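Researcher: Last one for today. Full complex below.
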Amino acid sequence: MENKNIKWEKLDNAAILFPAIAGTNMTNVYRISVTLNEKIEPEKLQIALDRVLPKFPGFKVSLKLGFFWYYFEENKNPSPIIEMESDYPCRYIDQKKNNDYLFKVTYYENRINLEVFHVLADGVGGINFLLELTYHYLDLVHTKNESQDMYYSSNTTTNREDSFLKYYDPEKIKKYPSEKALIVRGEKMLPGELGVIHGVMSVGNLKRVCEKYGVSINEYLVSNFIYSIYHENMQNKKPIRIAVPVNLRPYFHSTTTKNFFIMVSAEFKPSRMDYAFEDVLKEVSVDLRSKITKEKLKETLSYNVSNEKNLITRAVPLVLKNIAVRSVYRKAALANTSTITNIGNIKVESRFEKYIKSFHAILSISLGQSIKGTICSYKDDLIFTFSSNLVTTGIQRAFFRQLALDDIDVFIESNGVYDEKM
Amino acid sequence: MKKCNQCQVYIQDNNKICPLCHGALERIDGNTSINNYPNVHPKRKKLSLFLRIFLALSIVIETILITINYYTGHETWWSPFIGLYLLYGYFLMRFALVRSGSGRWRVVIGTFLIVFLVITADMSNGYDGWSVNFILPIALGVLNTLSLVFIVIRRKNWQSYLVFQLTLLGISLLSLVLILLNIITYPMVIVLVNIYIALSFITVTIIGGNKALYELKHRFHINR
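Model: Here's the assembly. Have a good evening.
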């Protein structure tokens, strides 16, 4: 009965949900990857990971069952083994088979993939970790730098504050919409398969088009996604609602590496069959603008935390709590048609820019949401990624055709699944 | 690079057809494209196929047995029990082989499924009470002994078995209610097992010292 006390910490408010609902069919894993201008050397990547991981206590944890809640425990095992990518993106991370870690690092040709179980961190936390890993790797490969202690990025933070609890206001509470939304249906791929289509486009071209419409890039892309869904489901009059995770850090001046986002729903209620793209764009952009304000975000944040703070909720054993969480999640999930995550513009330290070609992000699919979108950009390239387990690609086709109609050149990459399906 | 003239998009990787419309592509330059993703073939779950075969065969066998049972005199209904055991075998394989997760909880679920089956068998024979008087306490005792063995073997992570022991203690204490309800008619065994589990838990906690207390604190989310 040796060794000192192991450190532990509570899960943040957003993370509470994930362990209760995650499984092989709904993994809640996201991928962020960086593509370099050179082939990856796996041995050096492993060394880089071994060096970086101790600097990120938020990633150096395993998930444990408590009596009332899940919690993180410091993981003293060696880093997860880096492997060549050999499976579909965003597969379930079984911590028992991964040195008890909740993230994976894989590589393929020039690309490093970081796959993270969402319980650990949101996209901002994931990017933070991936950038630091990439810098350490590049330094090992190119400058043979042996200094293990430094952080390469001035933006890197290890702040582990639960910002949800800090900025919660019990006086301001607003519930999520619960009315059922349109659900995209269709023939599905085999369990575990995931189709990925990346569309690469110029940020400059997008800005030009968005200026013409008088909307932001985010509003334009979300509206286009909604229009594409509408286009493929014109007979259905249910509202098309897209959950847009909003990074709360800029609104509340937080630098936490834990999850700190809430979902805002961009909504379009079709009542006829002849909407033009401009009609949808106008309605959705107005809707989004009205919802993404500090006051509105605080209301939703406070609603999320109020459930966690509720005394009755706290006293219920975890086994029962999980059943309730799954049921609430099911209802909430069916209130959204899909999700679009905007990772934003990724900036890298100038001395590493010449080695880095691009960044990609992929979301796993979830209950009722067989297709999802992710946006991320680096320099002048914006990549919109569709992940889907539907065999058909009508929505993706409508989306990229609209971009082409707006004179935006789109370069498509896919993971080959759709080629095999033919 | 290739272009899809239907969708008006450029295809960067080595696709034979447009991934959006499945139409033919036009080559627009001589550059060779490469695939940025590995060629992944779905890993078929052979085990899952085995389970499905087992389930289908079980249904066939059980249907035949019920028919035989009915036509050869149904004073004694023995066929449903074989069905229950087949069902148990199926769920045990699912829990033990297919599902991921903690092994110790799979053992608990497997054990309680056996207890449930035994109680069913006891009830079908007019209920003598041997299942709850003896089998239930013995199962709890065996699980507690297993936890002690693992505490010794897996000394690096011994403290994680405290919660397992505490859960067993909770279940065994709850089973005392069965005495009050006169379901357990021979209480000595369950009382002894309760004492055994309680003493094991107390002993491990005392020997474990601060580390045991710390483990219990964070399992219950009590702040440091």
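The radius of gyration of chain A is 21 Å. The longest strand of chain A covers residues 29-36.
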